[in-house]
Structure formats: C-alpha cells, structure tokens
Amino acid sequence: MKFIGAYLATFKDVLTDRSGLLILFMAVVLYSLFYPSAYNHQVAHHTPIAVADLDQSALSRRLVMAARATEGVDVVAEVGSKEQGQQLLEQGHVDAVLWIGANFERDTLRGRKGNAALLGNGAYLVRSRGALGALAGALNNTAVDAIRMMVPAQGVPAAPPVTAVMRPLFNTQDGYGSAIVPGVFVMVVHQTLLLGICLMMPTWRTRYGRKMTTTWFAARAFAFITIGCLGLLYFWGMAFWQQDYPRGGEVFRMLFLAPIFAAAVVMPSMWLGSFLLRREQGGQLLLPMSFMFFFYSGLTWPHSNVAPALVELAKLVPATLGIHLTVKLVEMHATLTEAAPEWTRLALTALVFGIAAWIRLCAPLRPKRSERRFIGLI
Are 75 and 51 in contact (CB under 8 A)? Predict the structure, then answer.
C-alpha cells in the first residue's frame, strides 16, 4: 500500500505542477499535432528550376516541355548560359538547373552522348533530390522516345528482358516525413522525460530533502516509466495512424520495447536530477543538447560519415538506440532477436544508472571525517 500511495503521489505532484504537466504530458500531444504538419506533403512540390537551352532544337524544346510537365517542379526561368543558371542557383532563386548544350539533338540521334547537365543545390538535399530525379527521368524518356521516332528503319529497340520497378517497402510514400518524424517522436519522449524529471527532482529536494526511502524511489521511478510508456504508445499508435506513418502493428513488440526504453531514460534522469539544486538548471543544461542528440542518432546523417568515436559516444544516449529500435521493431517488422543488441544495451543502461541513482538518493549518508572523529572520541 505504501508503494501505491507513493506512486499516486508522484502523479499528483506532476499533475499539480504547471511546468511538469506541460513538459511531461502536454508537450507530447502538441508535438504529435503540430510537428508533422510541416511534412504533410511528404515529397517536395513546386520546386523552382531554371532551364538553359543552348541547342534550341526540336528535341531540346521537347525536353523543356517534358520538364514543364513533370510533377513536382516548376520552370521559373530560362537563361542563356550555364553561368547564369549557376548564379540563380547560388542566389537561392532556384533549386536545380537543367542545362542543354549545343548539338544535343544531333549527338543524341547519332547514338552519341547528348551534352546535357543537371545542377542541384546541396544545401537542400531533399528538394534537390526530388528535382534532379524528376529532371533525370524526363531527360531519359525524351531521349529514348526521340531515338524510336527518328530511326524507324532500324526498328524499335527491343525491350529489356527484365524491367526493374522500384517500390519502397516500408516508406511507401518515399516521403521525408515518414522517414524523419517517427525518430523525432522518440526524441520528444526522451527529452520530455529528461527535462521533466530534472524539473521535479529539485522540487522534491526542497520539500523533502535529497534522500528518500527505497519505496519512494521505486514508486517515483515506476511512475515516470509509466508516463514514458504512455507517451511512446501514444506516438506509435495514435500519432502514427493519424499521420499514416509506417507501422507494423506488433502490439507485443511495442509493449516489450516501451518500458525498456522508458527505464533507460528515467534512471539516468533521476541520477542526473539528484545533482541539481534549482528547477531551471535541467533546461539550461540539457535543452541545447537536443539537436546534437538527434544529429548523432544516425537518422538524418549516416553514421558512416561520422567519426567512430562520436558514434560510440552517441550510443550512450538512450534516444539513439530508441530511434534505431523504433525503425526496426515498430516500422520494419524486425524480430526481438534481430534487435537484441539495442534493447539489451538499453536494459543495461537502466540497470547501471538505476543502481547509481539509488546510491545517490537512498543510500545512507556517510558522516564527514570531522563527524567520524568526534564519534570516535565519544
């Protein structure tokens, strides 16, 4: 009964604390509603491009017409040289440039390589990728159709025996939101738990002192783990369904993963919160680190392009392993055995920091050296 009372008292303290309620509960709901709205289109639309047609032939004009008809791009400028197109690209007026060199039609119909180039802006990878992919398809289709129409004497080229059709297996819309936002949801749970616990711990320290009984320690830890599980299950269930993100629907795997990840976040947070003296210290120290945690998680920037030491350091953050587990178990139907390295590491993190937090918060205080000397004299 004492454990249940402490468990419910923890919820009461959180729900009656305006900042704690906002961080641990309201932030999760607000993020699920507003953050994905920026990625509703999933793929880039109406990407501005420029065209530099130096050939001015029937084939080059057909290519320009195909570019104008391509979904996702808008031809906003026609320039007279590649340099002018590059200038528009550098100034940010366009995201890609289609350059058609002189003698493009002649070289193409003679079976040579047509002189054409596609230029993109590497600062906006998603938009440039979509624009360049659309223009490359238009360029290839135009060249093939021209050869078939202009060389009837040679007959229509035989179709290849095997045609590759690319269809995304899990991210069926091939969208940016489906690839990024699920990982952001895990980071939101991680950061709200971390900041919320570091907000409540100094409050309890002021009211009741730094030390607590083992029952209160377990009850508070279990209460925060429950809050973390509710946030994860809300994201993986309701938010994924509402936004139509990839989801496997494996309830058992979700129920298995949620408490492990939540415990791996709660225990280090309670250990860290035991060192804080004021409520605002947690936000001041940890909030700026959210971007670094997410960047090194490997979701937006591959680990192959990051220094190995930083990759290993990033794996110490529970959010990194949690994001990988979400992609594997919740989205890509992996088995628990295939994801064992990640969830066992999370369980080990929860165990180690749980012991460290218990020592900080529950172990009896050792008397200072001067106190021990005084006790010895008595």
Answer: yes
pLDDT band at residue 286 using 50, 70 and 90 as cut-offs:
confident
- Strand segments (E) across 171-313: none
User: Can you give the residue range of the structural domain that contains 88?
Assistant: 47-154
Same structural domain, 250 and 230: yes
Task: Please check whether residues 102 and 248 belong to one and the same domain.
Answer: no
Is the distance from CB of 183 to CB of 299 less than 8 angstroms?
yes
Phi, psi (rounded to 5 degrees) for 333: 60, 30
How far is residue 37's CA from residue 42's CA, in Å, rounded to a whole number? 10
Strand partners, 53: 100
Beta partners for residue 98, in sequence order: 51, 118
Question: What is the DSSP code (8-state) at residue 330?
Answer: I
Of 66, 48, 42, 46, give the one whose Cα is nearest residue 120: 48
Residue 122: enclosing H or E segment and its boundaries?
A: none
Our count of domains for the chain comes to 2
Average pLDDT, integer, range 17-39: 86
Q: Is 99 helix (H, G, I), strand (E, B) or coil?
A: strand
Nearest in space to 255 (alpha carbons), one of 352, 345, 343, 350: 343
Considering the domain architecture, whether residues 72 and 132 belong to the same structural domain is answered as: yes
* Tens-place pLDDT, residues 46-74: 788 888 888 888 878 888 888 887 777 78
For position 60, what pLDDT does the model report? 80
Q: Which two tokens stand for residue 217?
A: 């320690």
Asked whether residue 222 falls in the same domain as residue 330, the answer is: yes
The residue written with tokens 């008397």 in the block is 367
Length of the chain: 378
Per the domain annotation, does 113 fall within a domain? yes
Q: What is the pLDDT of residue 220?
A: 93
Name the helix (H) or strand (E) containing 150.
helix 125-150
Could you tell me if 60 and 96 lie in one domain? yes
> In this predicted model, what pLDDT tens digit does every residue of 139-182 receive, in sequence order?
777 766 666 665 554 555 555 555 566 666 666 666 667 777 88
CA proximity to 75, closest of 49, 43, 47: 49
Beta bridge partners of 100: 53, 116
